[in-house]
C-alpha cells in the first residue's frame, strides 16, 4: 500500500515580519490605552481625596462658626492686626490670613434637658454685679468646662448681651442660677445673653490651615501661638471669606500632589448663618 505524503507550506519570512509588525502595533496601542486609564485613575483618585479633605475641613469650620456670637467676628491681617468683618476692607484680600470669633458654649448648653446656662435672665433679680439666670444648671457648665480643659472653669467665661459687642467677665457663680460679674461697671443688663469660655480662630500658617481655640473669650484678645490649635488642612492654596456680624461665606482650596511636578487643586465653599 502506497502512502501519500501531504506537503505543508510554512510561513514565509515576509508573513512572519508582517505578523510581528501587527503585534507590535497592537501592543503599543494597548500599552498607551492602559497608560491613559491608569493616569486617569490616579488623577480621579487625587481629586476625590483632595475634595474629601477640603469638605471635611470646611464642615469643621462651619460647625464651629455656627456658635459664633454676633459682633465678635474679626478678619486677621498678615501682620496680625485685625478688624471687624462687618467693616470695609482696609487692605487687599491677599493680605488677610484668617478670621477670629468668640464662640458660645454649646457643649453645656445642649448636653442635658436642663441647659448649663439658659440664655435668659430675671431682670428683676439681676443687676450690674449679679446675673440671675433662671432655669440654668451652672454647676454642670462648670464641670463640663473642667472636663474639656482641666485648667479652666466657669470663672474663665464671659457673658455677651445682644448688640453690645463687648464681653462681661464672670468671676464666680452662686449655686446653679446666679453669676457674679468680675467688674460691676456700667453695663446694661438685657433679658437674653450668651455665655462663652473660648475664642476661635481659623488661620493659614505656613501653607496649612489651623484652628486655634481655648483662648480668652474677648473681642480684643487676638489668638497667639500659645493657644491650643488643631490642624484642619495641609497644603492650602486659598482661604477667602466674606461676611457680616452674624454670617460668613468662605472658600477653601487645597493642593494634592500627583507627581513631583504635577498637582491638582480641590475647592469647597460654604455659607454659615
Account of the protein in words:
- This protein is of the alpha+beta class.
- The chain has one domain (57-272).
- It has three helices and 13 strands, in the order αβββαβαβββββββββ.
- It has helices at residues 13-65, 106-109, 138-148; strands at residues 74-77, 82-84, 96-104, 130-132, 158-160, 167-174, 178-181, 194-205, 208-215, 228-233, 236-243, 248-257, 263-272.
- Strands 1, 2, 3, 4, 5, 6, 7, 8, 9 and 10 form a ten-stranded antiparallel beta sheet that branches. Strands 11-12-13 form a three-stranded antiparallel beta sheet, with helices on one face.
- Strand 12 and strand 13 (263-272) form a beta hairpin.
- The radius of gyration is 32 Å and the shape is elongated.
- The N and C termini lie far apart (104 Å).
- The relative contact order is 0.16.
Could you outline the blueprint of secondary structure elements for this entry?
Elements: H1 13-65, E1 74-77, E2 82-84, E3 96-104, H2 106-109, E4 130-132, H3 138-148, E5 158-160, E6 167-174, E7 178-181, E8 194-205, E9 208-215, E10 228-233, E11 236-243, E12 248-257, E13 263-272
Antiparallel strand pairs: 1-2, 1-3, 3-8, 4-7, 5-6, 5-8, 6-7, 8-9, 9-10, 11-12, 12-13
